[in-house]
Design a protein that fits this description.
about 450 residues, mainly alpha, Growth Hormone, Chain: A, 2 domains, about 0% strand, MFS_trans_sf, MFS, transmembrane
Length: about 450
């Protein structure tokens, strides 16, 4: 909803804005006169909310769902794929609608807070359903609900960044968000590791952690009353709902190019990461089971490299007031890492290539999100919808790339061999193209 001309822009709320600006921190952004800088308390509570939601959301993917599938349908691991796929599709369909509805919400509690709380309730209930599920179908239904609930919360936390953050703070917040997204799966697995004997606690403890983080954030955030905001002129009907998932690239070219760049980059990432265990087994002449330890080492090192890229890129892009160059560097570094892995004759170079790729991933993802916030169309009336559409640039490659990859693996391969070298070169090409598209085609961001 657009603010009326006489209304001041929303700030961090009565609690979070009660303190004076910190020393050396101006009350308003130098490069965004309409949005004042938010307090450090807002940033850290936001980051903690993201951390909590990802713990609740990612722990089932990492371990809890697999445990329940094994309990309910032994020797049917394929059910895990069906369940996660159905949940991903549900989130794809519902998050833009929830974002659009939040854009139109007028309440004394603001636009986003009611949906953040509702999504959290749905997410926690879904975790309880999965914990108590008597069969695979109920377990799948629970995961669909979890994707709808927690997926809505994740999308609206990004929309809140569009509502509140000036340009000078978007990079650092995106970088910090990237760090906690990397840490959340580790924390979730560690948390769940001691609870595997109790299904209820296995799902509920991570869920409670996420719920508390969101509730604390919402209570201290205290969004401004949105009842006085000007609603979008388009009526809410089936026609407008059908347009929730689309936008006109001609009206929002920078957003469209940034979306395409992220889409291409993520295609490369999924090509690279989906078949890591099989690639290592092929390159090291071992079985998939035998390379599990190596996969764990690469994953651990990858988390550190990704965090370094996210924090370094996010903070530097704010300080230097440059975004596109960092996105391009991220795409180039990722591409170089994928090429190193493709040609590596042994483990040392594979580890080096994986570290470079993850460094590039952190750099690209953090700064690209900041670019998205900079070029977001219709920020006052449709931020929730457009941030959900931006999420498609990640979710679509996650579904499509694994389906396309086998065709590349079969090219030039004889017998039962797979052409992993070609796949990794294509991954490098996609990630490089993603960086180039953002750097060369997005015009309104430096």
């Amino acid at each position: 909803m657009a603010l009326t001309p006489s209304e001041p822009p929303p700030t961090g709320g009565p609690i979070l804005d009660s303190a004076l600006p910190t020393a050396g921190e101006p009350a308003e952004s130098a490069d965004s006169g309409d949005l004042p800088q938010v307090k450090g308390s807002f940033i850290w509570l936001l980051v903690m909310a993201i951390f909590g939601v990802y713990i609740a959301f990612v722990t089932p993917i990492a371990i809890s769902l697999a445990i329940r599938v094994e309990q309910l349908a032994p020797a049917h691991e394929e059910y895990l794929g069906y369940i996660t796929g159905a949940g991903g599709l549900a989130a794809l369909l519902t998050t833009p609608v929830c974002g659009m509805l939040s854009d139109r919400t007028g309440s004394r509690f603001g636009r986003r807070s009611p949906f953040l709380l509702a999504g959290t309730v749905v997410g926690v209930v879904a975790l309880l359903v999965m914990a108590a599920a008597p069969g695979i179908l109920v377990l799948g239904l629970g995961w669909v609900l979890a994707q709808v609930g927690w997926g809505t919360v994740v999308s609206l936390l990004i929309a809140l960044q569009a509502d509140r953050l000036p340009e000078s703070q978007r990079g650092k917040v995106s970088g910090l968000s990237g760090v906690v997204q990397q840490l959340a799966p580790i924390a979730g697995v560690l948390m769940a590791g001691g609870l595997t004997g109790n299904n209820l606690l296995l799902f509920l403890v991570p869920g409670v952690f996420g719920a508390v983080a969101v509730i604390v954030f919402v209570c201290l955030l205290r969004e401004p009353d949105s009842r006085g905001m000007t609603a979008t002129a388009e009526p809410l009907d089936l026609k407008s709902l059908s347009r929730t998932y689309f936008f006109d690239p001609r009206r929002s070219p920078d957003f469209a190019w940034n979306w395409l760049g992220k889409f291409l980059f993520m295609f490369g990432v999924i090509f690279n990461t989906t078949f890591t265990a099989f690639f290592l087994a092929d390159r090291l002449d071992m079985t998939v089971k035998e390379v599990s330890g190596t996969v764990a080492v690469l994953a651990g090192g990858g988390v550190v490299a990704t965090m370094l890229g996210a924090v370094g890129g996010g903070f530097l892009s704010d300080r230097l007031r440059r975004r596109r160059a960092f996105v391009l560097i991220g795409g180039c570094v990722y591409a170089f890492g994928a090429v190193v892995m493709a040609v590596a004759p042994g483990l040392p170079l594979i580890i080096l290539g994986a570290a470079l790729a993850n460094l590039g991933l952190g750099l690209f993802a953090a700064v690209d999100q900041a670019v998205m916030l900079d070029v977001l169309p219709e920020r006052e009336t449709d931020a929730g919808r457009f941030t959900a559409i931006y999420g498609f640039s990640t979710s679509l490659p996650q579904g499509l790339a694994p389906l396309v990859a086998p065709a590349f693996l079969a090219i030039g391969a004889a017998g039962g061999d797979k052409n992993y070298t070609l796949l990794y070169f294509i991954a490098a090409t996609c990630s490089l193209l993603g960086g180039l598209v953002v750097a060369l085609r997005v015009k309104s961001v430096r």
